[in-house]
Write a structure and sequence with these properties.
Distance between the termini: 51 Å
Radius of gyration: 23 Å
Number of strands: 0
Order of helices and strands: HHHHH
């Protein structure tokens, strides 16, 4: 290298900008996950307390409350992990959100088919989230290469 020669330094790429809708979805996952964990703790604690207060209850209620509590704890942890994945732009979080919202869409359709008009709200929310997840800038944030775009 000659004296006085400059070395070309390329700047690092700019950080990916998280879409606003993804920020909202991540925060909702954090809130829902935290609330599910709290509810799980309440259910796990309530089983033995209810058995002591109401001695006429069969012991299976304590077990059922505990099982429900564990279910809520697991769901809450999944919500927190998915929220973190959405927040940080992990591709697996995009796929998991799309799969869960597709299941929500099917659930809403099933509810409407069974005559529950309130299922329309869940159906519309799931459809809106699915539509948003396939926007090109959202897929770019997650690094997802799916040819279908809205």
């Amino acid at each position: 290298m000659q004296p006085g020669a400059q070395i070309a330094v390329t700047p690092p790429p700019p950080p990916r900008q998280r879409p606003t809708g993804i920020t909202i979805l991540a925060l909702l996952n954090f809130i829902g996950g935290g609330l599910a964990i709290l509810l799980g703790i309440v259910f796990i604690a309530a089983g033995p307390i209810m058995a002591q207060i109401e001695s006429g209850l069969p012991p299976i209620f304590s077990v059922l409350f505990g099982a429900l509590g564990i279910g809520f704890l697991i769901a809450g942890l999944i919500g927190l992990v998915v929220g973190w994945g959405l927040w940080t732009g992990k591709g697996w979080a995009w796929w998991l959100t799309v799969i869960l919202e597709a299941l929500g869409l099917l659930s809403g359709l099933a509810g409407i088919a069974m005559g529950d008009p309130t299922s329309l709200v869940g159906l519309l929310i799931a459809a809106l989230i699915l539509w948003y997840m396939f926007k090109p800038h959202v897929k770019d944030f997650f690094g997802v290469k799916v040819s279908f775009s809205t």
